[in-house]
Amino acid sequence: MKKILLIFISFIFVLCISSVFTNAAQIDTSFKFSTIETDHFTIHFHQDLADVAQKTAKIAEGTHKVLTEEFGWIPNEKTQIVLIDNSDFANAYTTVLPYNTIYVHVIPPSSGMTIIEYDDWLKMLIVHEYAHILTLDPSRGYSNVMRRIFGKPIPGNDLLSLILFVVTGPPNVFLPPWWHEGIATWAETEYTGAGRGRNTYFDMIYRMAVKEDNIPTVDRVYDIFIRSSASQVHC
Q: Per the count of CB atoms within 10 A, which of 42, 174, 224, 234 is most buried?
């Protein structure tokens, strides 16, 4: 039983941060980063992205105002946003361990992606990713006391640090990925002029599921999410 529990917890942890670490490891060492700060964000950007950084700052502060009111949570720390232009593949990654951080590939999606329908790509992306921050970060009661003492530690390969992570980590980190992606997708649809909730491709999927009387049950949602994520951008 102990071994099964350890494997399960390790799996959840890997799902939460592996993509972020992979992305960080691919940052070009020739990049020279600069930083600008706003009231609630610290934005890091390399050469040739100064204009994007200024736009990001404006969008992020506007997003903070509306989403913190919506979710009822204001992070105690500034969110770090790292802007990167080293790929032809549109994507973004969010983590709250050990700090609230969003990595952004600034290139917009290509025509072959199902997220091609947008009014302002950068705004939709920031709304989506900041919704992740505001749903992963909250801590109250016992969890808040643990955070004040231990912060938000990242577990190592030993059992002790893994146990520390379980008893001190943000509770919402352990919710299933489809829940987090669902909330963030709802936010991008509600607070931008586009979003996947208005996307014609996904609308087709919903209509066909109803027509064929094949609406997936809750126990199938996670499998469908994993299969779709394997071939599409993961935000």
A: 42
Residue tagged 């509600």 (tokens): 190
Residue with tokens 């691919």: 26
Q: What's the rounded Cα separation, in Å, for the pair 25 and 2?
A: 32
Rounded Cα distance, 28 and 8, in Å: 34
Q: How far apart are CA 198 and CA 218, in angstroms?
A: 22
On whether the CB atoms of residues 93 and 103 are closer than 8 A, the answer is yes
Residue with tokens 């992205």: 49
Q: Is the pLDDT of residue 132 over 90?
A: yes
Q: What is the DSSP letter of 47?
A: T
35 - beta bridge partners? 44
The bridge status of strand 34-37 relative to strand 41-45 is antiparallel
CA distance linking residue 217 with residue 220, whole number of Å: 5
Number of domains in the chain: 1
The model carries a pTM of: 0.80
Task: Identify the domain containing residue 195 by its residue range.
Answer: 2-231
Q: Which residues contact 68 (CB under 8 A, 6 or more apart)?
A: 74, 134
The DSSP bridge partners found for residue 36 are 43
